[in-house]
Amino acid sequence: MFSFFKKLFGPGTDYKALQQAGAIIIDVRSAQEFDRGHIKGAKNIPVNMIQREIAAIKKWNKPIITVCQSGARSGMAKSTLKGAGIEVYNGGSWLSLRSKLD
Question: pTM to 2 decimals?
Answer without folding.
Answer: 0.89
